[in-house]
Amino acid sequence: MSDILEVLKNRLFLIACLLTAIAGFIFVTLSDGEAMFIIPGAIMVVLGFVLLISGYITPIVSQSKTGMAIGAFLLLGSIIGIAGIFTVNVLDAGFMMIIAGPVIIALGCLAWPCICCQGSKAIRSQVIGIASAHDQISMVELSNITGASVKLVSEIVYDAIGKRELSGRMEGGTFVRSAPSTTTYSAASTTREREIVKVLVICPYCGAKTEQGIGKCQNCQADL
Questions:
Q1: Which sign does the torsion angle of CA 46, 83, 56, 153 carry?
Q2: How far apart are the C-alpha atoms of 28 and 76, rounded to whole Å?
Q3: Helix residue ranges per DSSP H, 33-149
Q4: Which residues contact 216 (CB under 8 A, 6 or more apart)?
Q5: In terms of pTM, does the model score above 0.85?
Q6: Nearest-5° angle of CA 39, CA 55, CA 2?
Q7: How many CB atoms are located within 10 Å of the residue 218 CB?
Q8: Strands 174-177 and 209-211, bridge-based pairing
């Protein structure tokens, strides 16, 4: 039972997107040709499937706490909209529910692109950062800290180890960080001293000594 609940929780966003598309289909089907139902219904169908595909290819975001919150928002809007379309002729609030449902869905859809673009890198960085800060940490603990599912954090950790972004190994459901290397490297530097021997030339005119390579005597200025 707990496994089923865990799967449903991780798939909440995808389920909500599918229900959004179904709600839109119901709007179109029961519209009786009225544009005020057909237009929002068609938009809900399109948005539902677009978000469904987006959430499926970015599980790192859709299975996070933020993704689940957006999913709950979409789910609420879909239920309110479906309830409104079936009770519009029975309850006075039915018409308001028909309006409120698509509005709630629209707000969730507007928030999703920003979350999707920024969420993937943020969650991955958070998982890697927390894992690297512990000598060892279980995937369950990592999931509780980050809010991502156990499956998702496991995939991130395995991928990070493969890409050498994490130094360590997986032992069952626990990440064990590698101990820092204690090997030290010392570079011996050698200093070589070279003795420079100066060759002096004796001036044939005044007998003064001048370094070889100088064209004139430093004493009498005669050519050497």
A1: positive
A2: 19
A3: 35-57, 59-62, 65-87, 94-132, 139-146
A4: 210, 222, 223, 224
A5: no
A6: 115
A7: 13
A8: unpaired
Is the model more confident about 137 or about 63? 137
DSSP-based three-state secondary structure for 201: strand
Rounded to whole angstroms, the Cα distance separating 46 from 147 reads 29
Dump pLDDT digits (tens) for 115-139: 877 777 788 888 888 888 888 999 9
Tokens of 147: 């809010």
Both tokens assigned to 72: 């709950």
Cα–Cα distance for residue pair 107/19, rounded to 1 Å: 16
To the nearest whole percent, how much of the chain has pLDDT over 90?
Answer: 25
Query: Is the separation of the CB atoms in 84 and 96 below 8 Å?
Result: yes
Compute, in degrees rounded to 10, the torsion defined by CA atoms 105, 108, 110, 116: -140
CA gap 205, 216 in Å, rounded: 11
